[in-house]
Specification:
Blueprint (H helix, E strand, L loop, with lengths): L7 E2 L29 E2 L2 E9 L4 E7 L4 E8 L7 H15 L9 E7 L2 E7 L1 E5 H6 L5 H20 L2 E2 L8 E4 L4 E3 L6 E2 L35 H4 L6 H17 L17 H10 L11 H18 L5 H17 L22 H13 L5 H30 L4 H28 L4 H5 L1 H6 L10 H6 L10 H19 L3 H18 L2 H17 L8 H13 L3 H17 L3 H17 L4 H17 L3 H19 L4 H16 L3 H19 L4 H16 L3 H19 L4 H16 L3 H19 L4 H16 L3 H19 L4 H16 L3 H19 L4 H16 L3 H17 L9 H14 L2 H18 L3 H18 L3 H15 L4 H11 L4
Antiparallel strand pairs: 1-8, 2-3, 3-4, 4-5, 5-7, 6-7, 8-10, 9-12, 10-11
Helix pairs in contact: 3-5, 3-7, 5-6, 6-7, 8-10, 9-10, 10-11, 11-15, 15-16, 15-17, 16-17, 17-18, 17-19, 18-19, 19-20, 19-21, 20-21, 21-22, 22-23, 23-24, 24-25, 25-26, 26-27, 27-28, 27-29, 28-29, 29-30, 30-31, 31-32, 32-33, 33-34, 33-35, 34-35, 35-36, 35-37, 36-37, 37-38, 38-39
Length: 987
């Protein structure tokens, strides 16, 4: 290929033309290619780049976003119309439902004459099949590619989509090494119960099925047996195709038709077992899902890496033996010291005695999760210690008797491993005298130990600045590093103040020694500790910036990158987004220079995502978090605490975008990780349960929210006792739920108790105390104690204006709450003025399309309707409902007020049918959202009035009114319903 020319590959090609193996129905010649410069919607065609069974693919320009895209175009008159159209639309819908770094991104789908087009990501690269054929690939390279592709498949399965045609021709490998699964044209929802057929993925589609039941689609060589038989397929069918493709990549041929394998004996046993299980003829005998398969892949590769850190240990051992024999033959010395006995180095660091002391210390804290913390932390310590022994032995075997240069490398490796051992010893000594805080963070602290892999990176070890030539400095360097290790271990265990008390003087000693490597270490540690300790986080900036400079002088790319990444996070945290982005860009080249440290790049991407999130660049934040998550899952395992942290951060972006179903998946998975890593009684479990409750509240699912909050409260009280501030948070949440569901006495108990806890611990003039008073004031209004409610709300408003200034969302909340009380008192003009004041403030704070703006609009509309001014009320209510629907919250509590206003306005006009449509939706939504029985009964009575006015089903109108009367029980509103029933007798 000519220099600079790109090989651009997209879905539907295999890198060398259309696959001849695909049984793609209806494939006929397409129209002449679109001319260069012609348009498909807004896209400008550049050139055709591929042809598949159902479409021609073009490279095109997107002038609006100034980017190059791939356009797949279908001309239905040449491919029997409906079938091919539905296939293309289904591919677009399937891909658009996914957002994952290992899945091709779909940007747009639209009509082209009587056909369709899909605009998707243009991948600069080739198919996996072409990549495999381009030259010899190592086992690690092949497994890296299939691991990434498997994660793309797993993401599709999590979204409810089965690919049904996974093969190397449908996986793209970019020039940057990024692997993406493509060509979902045969995809179908996992929920579809037909046999092998596919159906449109559009919800509610009334189009006929596009493939007859029993029709076989896909590529036979990679098909699972059930798919070849035309039976129903599911995610385990994709798993079979994945294993068939992996078998072919490893052996150059596919498995037998019965799933039999011909894997060479020199392939790792764990890999042979994995492929054989995934190729089981009965799907029940395969892995439960792709995630389980990938977990085995990660575990197997981890064990392999530990056995092969610096080369083949067996070969090295043979070299050592040969060297010893040669020395003996020459009559030389007895030869190198044997590479054995390294287990003994663990004595006093991590042995039976220290384990027992740690167990006793953890139990002595009385923490309810102490045993779980010990079990999980000690298991991770075992793994780290065993890996240390393996690496020490392998480094010795691979480097001995290889000449003077190798002996120097061995010294560097051994010094690195000695440092890791010292760090392990510092942490276990802290565990042996653990207090409550140490137990709480124990598992995370073990995961924060410096990775052993750094001691196998020969390029990085040899590139760094050597120690000072002055041998008298060696003891001072060793002593300073020992103190830094102690400070690091204390910081990892959450003892930041204790750590800083050691790190600060150690930094002064490092500066006096004036060796950049040591100075950089000390500065970076102090900067991190300053950032994490209570107090002034800005104190971290100067040492971190100096650490980056000193690390550059020491040629320590990894440490320099970490300092820049942490500085970028700090800048974003402080609101200096311009500096944060500049630091992110600066760190990029350093991370690249640091080599193949995937976890370092994941940290960089996660920090970049956090800055994008703060800037409101949510789509970019999603991509960055997804990449960081994929790497951490692959390198740390799907159940690692850092994976849970990433999921939590990712969920904040999804919540900001209104993707609440996605947030629920992320938080639920995070909860499962915390439980597995820390046990079911850990504080992180309680926090995540509380966050899940808040999510369900955002979604208007009051019953689910109350369930999660109740579980969080029980665990927090078990952990902290009855009077903890964290307990107060969940008490307040439960009080709000109880009040929304009409259980006012229960709500009073929760909210009064939460306020008492906060007052006792925080004083009066505090934002959290004001928050509790605000919620109690809302309850007073619901209880009909209007004067008390109004006085309390005005007190909160004054306090919030003092704390936050005159324009703030919390100030707007108080203004809206005052308006609600004024409405109850019949002071409608005053209430309307307050509602409009709150709306203007929220639009200024949030912009026009925020959910809180919808709440204010609904409030304005409600007052206007009560005043009889429906011409003004309806536009406000419609705008509020549009915001709610756009955020996929049409069946949530937030939809009730605008729906009710729209229904009542139609009733005022005598439009019974239109009123019925709005009020029916309101009743159904109220029941789904868990609104109070009284609220639902009130809307049901309004529905009865609409049905009567419509006149087509007055019997139903009476039934709805009778049910509303029964649900209201002894409430005063029941009298109004009874009066209406008496005045509207049945037929």
């Amino acid at each position: 290929m000519a220099g600079g020319e790109r090989n651009v590959t997209v879905s539907d090609t295999d890198g060398h033309g259309t696959s001849a193996e695909s049984l793609e129905l209806e494939a006929e010649p397409h129209d002449e290619p679109l001319a260069q410069g012609s348009r498909v919607d807004r896209y400008v065609i550049v050139a055709p780049i591929g042809r598949g069974g159902f479409g021609v693919v073009y490279e095109a320009n997107d002038p609006d976003l100034d980017r190059r895209v791939a356009i797949k175009v279908l001309h239905p008159e040449r491919s029997r119309g409906l079938l091919a159209q539905e296939r293309l639309l289904r591919e677009a819908q399937a891909l658009a439902r996914l957002s994952h770094p290992n899945v091709v991104t779909v940007h747009d789908v639209g009509a082209l004459g009587h056909g369709l087009f899909v605009a998707m990501e243009l991948v600069d690269g080739e198919t996996l099949g072409a990549w495999l054929q381009a030259g010899p690939r190592s086992l690690d390279q092949i497994l890296d590619a299939f691991d990434a592709a498997g994660r793309g498949l797993a993401a599709a399965h999590s979204a409810g989509i089965v690919h049904r045609d996974f093969k190397p021709a449908n996986v793209l490998v970019g020039r940057n090494g990024q692997v993406r699964v493509a060509d979902f044209g045969l995809a179908r929802s996992q929920d579809d119960s037909d046999s092998g057929s596919g159906v449109p993925l559009a919800l509610g589609s009334s189009r006929p099925e596009v493939t007859r039941a029993g029709t076989v689609l896909g590529t036979p060589a990679y098909m699972a047996p059930e798919q070849q038989r035309g039976e129903r397929v599911d995610a385990r069918s994709d798993q079979y195709s994945f294993a068939a493709a992996l078998h072919e990549a490893l052996e150059g041929k596919r498995p037998g038709a019965d799933g039999s394998t011909s894997l060479r004996a020199d392939q790792p046993a764990w890999l042979r077992r994995l492929i054989q299980r995934a190729l089981a003829p009965r799907r029940e005998d395969r892995y439960a899902d792709m995630d389980a398969l990938l977990d085995d892949l990660v575990r197997g590769r981890g064990a392999r890496r530990r056995r092969r850190l610096v080369g083949a240990a067996v070969v090295a051992a043979v070299a050592v033996a040969a060297g010893v024999a040669a020395l003996a033959a020459r009559g030389g010395a007895s030869g190198p010291a044997p590479c054995t006995g390294f287990d003994a180095r663990l004595g006093g660091v991590w042995d039976g005695a220290r384990r027992e002391r740690m167990h006793a210390a953890f139990a002595g804290t009385g923490a309810v999760y102490a045993q779980d913390a010990f079990t999980h932390a000690s298991a991770r310590l075992d793994d780290y210690a065993h890996d240390w022994v393996d690496m020490r032995r392998d480094a010795c075997l691979a480097t001995r008797v290889r000449g003077e240069q190798s002996e120097a490398l061995l010294d560097l490796r051994m010094a690195c491993l000695d440092r890791r051992l010292a760090q392990l010893g510092e942490l276990t000594s802290i565990f042996a005298a653990a207090d409550h805080d140490v137990v709480e963070g124990a598992v995370r602290a073990v995961t924060r130990l410096d990775p052993l892999s750094g001691c196998a990176d020969a390029a990085a070890l040899t590139a760094r600045l050597p120690p000072p030539a002055d041998a008298t400095l060696a003891p001072r360097i060793a002593a300073t590093r020992a103190r830094l290790d102690r400070a690091q271990a204390l910081g990892d265990a959450g003892k930041y103040d204790d750590a800083l008390a050691i790190a600060r003087p150690a930094e002064a000693d490092a500066r006096a020694i004036a060796w950049p490597a040591l100075t950089a270490e000390a500065l970076y540690l102090r900067g991190n500790l300053e950032r994490l300790a209570d107090g002034n986080a800005a104190a971290a900036d100067a040492p971190l910036a100096e650490a980056a400079r000193q690390a550059a002088l020491a040629h320590d790319d990894t440490l320099q990158a970490r300092a820049l990444i942490t500085l970028a996070f700090r800048a974003g945290e402080a609101g200096d987004h311009t500096r944060a982005l500049a630091l992110i860009d600066a760190a990029d080249s350093v991370v690249t220079r640091a080599g193949g440290d995937e976890l370092l790049r994941a940290d960089w991407r996660a920090t970049q995502a956090s800055v994008f999130e703060r800037l409101g660049r949510y789509d970019e934040a999603r991509v960055a978090y997804a990449e960081a998550l994929a790497v951490r899952e692959r390198r740390l395992g799907r159940d690692a605490p850092d994976v849970a942290v990433t999921l939590n951060n990712f969920s904040n972006v999804a919540r900001a975008q209104g993707k609440l179903d996605e947030v629920r998946v992320q938080l639920t998975r995070s909860l499962a990780i915390w439980k597995q890593a820390y046990g079911p009684d850990h504080p992180n479990v309680a926090i995540t349960l509380n966050n899940l409750g808040s999510l369900e509240l955002d979604a208007g699912h009051l019953v689910d929210a109350e369930r999660d909050y109740s579980q969080a409260l029980a665990l927090k009280q078990k952990l902290y006792g009855a009077d903890n501030l964290s307990v107060a948070i969940t008490l307040m949440n439960l009080g709000n739920i109880a009040s929304m569901r009409g259980r006012l006495d229960e709500a009073d108990g929760y909210l009064t108790r939460a306020l008492a806890i906060r007052r006792a611990q925080l004083g009066e003039d505090n934002a959290f105390v004001l928050e509790s008073q605000y919620n109690l004031a809302i309850l007073r209004r619901q209880q009909g104690r209007y004067d008390e409610a109004l006085a309390l709300h005005r007190q909160v408003l004054a306090g919030r204006e003092r704390l936050f200034g005159p324009v703030h969302d919390k100030v707007a909340n108080s203004i809206d709450a005052i308006a609600a009380v004024l409405e109850q008192q019949g002071k409608l003009p005053e209430a309307l003025a307050e509602r409009r004041r709150a709306l203007a403030m929220r639009e200024k704070v949030f912009g026009p399309d925020h959910l809180d703006v919808a709440g204010s609009l609904a409030g304005v509309a409600g007052v206007l309707e009560t005043l009889g001014r429906c011409g003004e009320a309806e536009p406000a209510a419609q705008r509020a409902l549009a915001i709610v629907d756009a955020q996929h919250l049409g069946e949530s509590y937030d939809a009730l007020a605008p729906l009710e206003t729209l229904g009542l306005c139609e009733l005022r006009r005598g439009h019974g049918a239109a009123a019925t449509a709005h009020l029916e939706r309101a009743v159904v939504t109220g029941e789904k959202a868990g609104a109070s029985p009284a609220d639902v009964a009130g809307m049901r009575f309004e529905l009865a009035r609409a049905l009567w006015q419509d006149g087509r089903d007055r019997a139903r109108a009476r039934r709805e009114a009778e049910r509303a009367h029964a649900d209201l029980g002894g409430a005063s509103a029941a009298v109004e319903v009874a009066t209406w029933l008496a005045a509207h007798p049945g037929p």
